[in-house]
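Lecture notes, continued. The same structure-token format from the folding unit now serves as the input rather than the output. Read the line below as a description of shape only.
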């Protein structure tokens, strides 16, 4: 879930940075180049999760996204310094 949200957020950020409509061709697709997850607290099962992605850096073909996961309104884990590279 964290990985998929990160690559989707990277793609959306790249479209925005290029001033292009979302989903316009050629498609901007990203793959995970690095993934670091800190487990702050156990994540309970059976509750809705909320993921929030923040762009840390956009440079050339690389977008770095920080993602937090919350369960019950409390942060559970964070992806810090993970980056995605476009799939060209």
């Amino acid at each position: 879930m964290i990985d998929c949200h990160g690559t989707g957020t990277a793609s959306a950020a790249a479209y925005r940075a290029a001033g292009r409509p979302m989903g316009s061709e050629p498609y901007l697709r990203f793959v995970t180049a690095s993934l670091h997850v800190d487990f702050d607290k156990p994540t309970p099962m059976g509750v809705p999760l909320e993921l929030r992605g923040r762009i840390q850096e956009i440079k050339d073909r690389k977008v770095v996204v920080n993602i937090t996961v919350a369960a019950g309104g409390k942060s559970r884990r964070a992806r810090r310094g993970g980056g995605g590279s476009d799939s060209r």
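Point for the exam: The first strand starts at residue 30 and ends at 34.
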